[in-house]
Amino acid sequence: MKAQRIDGKQISDQIKEEAAQEASALREKGIVPCLAVVLVGNDPASAVYVNNKKKACEKVGIVSRSYELPEDTEENALLQLIEELNMDKSVHGILVQLPLPPQINEKKVILAIDAQKDVDCFHPFNVGLVQTGEKGFLPCTPAGVLELIERSGYTISGKRCVVIGRSHNVGKPIAMLLLQKNGTVTICHSKTQDLTGICKEADILVSAVGKLHTVTADMVKPGAVVIDVGINRNEDGKLCGDVDFDAVSEVAGAISPVPGGVGLMTVAMLMKNCITAAKLQNHIVS
Ligand code: NAP
Fold first, then answer.
1. Distance between Cα 199 and ligand 1 center (Å)
2. 237: left (phi over 0), alpha (psi -120 to 50) or beta
3. C-alpha distances in angstroms, 24 versus 14, 59, 94, 228?
4. Residue with CA at minimum distance from ligand 1 atom 5
5. Are residues 144 and 199 in the same domain?
6. How far is CA 6 from CA 11, 93, 164, 261, in A?
7. Which of 1, 142, 161, 202 is deepest in the core (most CB within 10 A)?
8. Residue 217 domain-assigned?
9. Which amino acid residue places its CA nearest to atom 30 of ligand 1?
10. Cβ–Cβ contacts within 10 Å for residue 180, how many?
11. Pocket probe mutation, ligand 1, options 50, 148, 190, 199, max atoms within 8 Å of Cβ
């Protein structure tokens, strides 16, 4: 393997440690950062994600309050719970784990969360702030991608960046954040022609597709930084990303693994947003 392995564990631990220091400073002021975690239904993957988030809260010194609702929960019942959490001054962040069962409209739920408690940064108000580059929450996975690149010592400014994937919560905000760091950004998607040719020009290549072998070695410029956001299972049921890791490692300059890369960063950035939420609601400027 020629490429530097970007260490999501080490970088995410560092970010959680910084959040822990901030949490402790808030506690000294009498503010106990608190995240309400809402899980509806029995999706096993969601249960794992929620558990990881609760464990991270414990490590950082954020209180996590758990709300586990049955699969057949009605939309109104969830909206009512969100309203109660919005009003509760001891709760700083509200996280509703997606996806939700089909009887519940996700958009309505996201809109119902107080924008100041929207630690996932999914509310259109916060999405707007990200677009205009103003201070506030940053979307967890996209911000995690940027931290991985920058804390590994790579500069974004002036670089050719290619993002594969244009979803509202992942691909698009990654591209927006890279642009704000003065990258020259191209977004690719399922209708893109000559994906290989475009990817091959990238100094920084981010794949956020959710399909095995989306990025193969022939698509990568020698020395490029490759970040893999995808979460997939291979034929043996093993967790892996979008990037053909072993082959691309022979060409790239740096590469983030799955697992051990972006996934850990998402949780760390959530912790950071919980601290931001507690500060915002207590009018503490950082
Ligand atoms: P999504 O909503 O399904 O979006 C996938 C994107 O990939 C779409 O924009 C789609 O294009 C594009 N695409 C599909 N096939 C393609 C192809 N053959 N060539 C080029 N582009 C193609 O998924 P998402 O929510 O953005 O998530 C993407 C991946 O990231 C998933 O594996 C997800 O599990 C993972 N993820 C990881 C984390 C983490 O913490 N590590 C967090 C969130 C998501 P169109 O728009 O044209 O359909």
1. 16
2. left
3. 15, 12, 20, 33
4. 209
5. yes
6. 9, 30, 19, 7
7. 142
8. yes
9. 230
10. 15
11. 190
Identify the domain containing residue 48 by its residue range. Answer: 30-115
Show which residues are catalytic.
Answer: 53, 97, 120
CA atoms within 13 A on the CB side of 75: 11
- Ligand 1-lining residues (CB < 6 angstroms): 141, 164-167, 169-171, 188-192, 195, 208-211, 229-231, 262-263, 266
Distance 181 CA to ligand 1 centre (A): 22
User: What is the spatial distance between Cα 236 and Cα 267, in angstroms, rounded to a whole number?
Assistant: 26
Q: What does residue 117 show for φ and ψ, rounded to 5 degrees?
A: -110, 5
Q: What separation in Å is there between the alpha carbon of 44 and the centre of ligand 1? A: 20
pLDDT in tens, 58-114: 999 999 999 999 999 999 999 999 999 999 999 999 999 999 999 999 999 999 999
Q: From the CA of 31, how far away is ligand 1's center (Å)?
A: 38
- In one letter, which amino acid is 71? E
> For the chain, how many structural domains are there in total?
2
Is pLDDT at 142 greater than 90 in this prediction?
yes
Write the CATH number for 36.
3.40.50.10860
- Among 115, 149, 178, the domain-final residue is 115
Q: How confident is the model at residue 285 (pLDDT cuts 50, 70, 90)?
A: confident
Mean pLDDT of the chain: 97
